[in-house]
Amino acid sequence: MGSAVGCGPQGTVAWGGQCGAAPNLCSEGTVCVVVDPTVSTCYEFCSTNADCVAPGGLCLIQLDDGMGNPIPNVTLCTANCNPINNAGCPVAGTSCQLLQESMPPMSLLTDCQGAGTGTHNAPCTPGMPDCAPKFGCFNTGTPQAPNNVCLKYCNAANPFGCPGIQLCNDLGVMLGGIEYGVCD
């Protein structure tokens, strides 16, 4: 079984909007992608990173045929969003996450992914939607004894910008002029 390009009805849901069955079809240049078992979002097609919204949007989501087989030459932009305030993730049930490519050039990026309900120090599994919006899953232990917990994103330029007596601990990464940290 091979892959083919086809046409479908054009919808009106813009990039980042919730999609699914008619009348919630994606607009021209986008496709409906399942980001969580209960949430689908319109993603934009791209050929290069220049087609995506900087600084967090990169052209690297490989579309597959639903069986895990990549469709050649079909890529989508990640969402340019802000994990500190979840801006840029307009669909309820999604959470902006700060990520890094797993292969060189190992660029930083952002994307809207499924969201959970975990807040400060709730256990989580990396890559799973366990943490609430504005929180990410971080290893606070060692590689030998990981202790993965949800921690709130913050701007390291404001070390006192966290709730209560928590401080913003610098992650040592900067994207779009923001030096990201986590509250702990």
Which features would summarize this protein structure in a list?
single chain, 184 residues, mainly beta, 2 domains, 4-stranded antiparallel β-sheet, 0% helix
Would you mind describing this structure in some detail?
The protein has two domains: 1-95, no CATH class; 116-184, no CATH class. The chain is 0% helix and 38% strand. The protein is built from no helices and ten strands. It has strands at 30-36, 39-46, 59-64, 70-77, 94-100, 108-114, 135-139, 148-155, 168-175, 178-183. The mean pLDDT is 90.
Short description:
The chain has 184 residues and is mostly beta strands.
Task: Furnish the topology, listing elements before pairings.
Blueprint: E1 30-36, E2 39-46, E3 59-64, E4 70-77, E5 94-100, E6 108-114, E7 135-139, E8 148-155, E9 168-175, E10 178-183
Antiparallel strand pairs: 1-2, 2-4, 3-4, 5-6, 7-8, 8-10, 9-10
Low-confidence blocks of residues? none
Number of helices: 0
**N- and C-termini, Cα separation:** 51 Å
Instruction: Tell me, rounded to a whole number, the average pLDDT.
Output: 90
**Shape descriptor:** globular
**Count of distinct strands:** 10
Quote the beta fraction.
35-45%
Structural class comes to: mainly beta
> Number of folding domains?
2
Task: State the assembly state of the protein chains.
Answer: single chain
Written as H for each helix and E for each strand, in order along the chain, the element string is EEEEEEEEEE
Q: Helix content range of the residues, please?
A: under 10%
In this structure, how is the largest beta sheet organized?
4 strands, antiparallel
Radius of gyration: 17 Å
* Strand order, sheet with most strands: 1-2-4-3
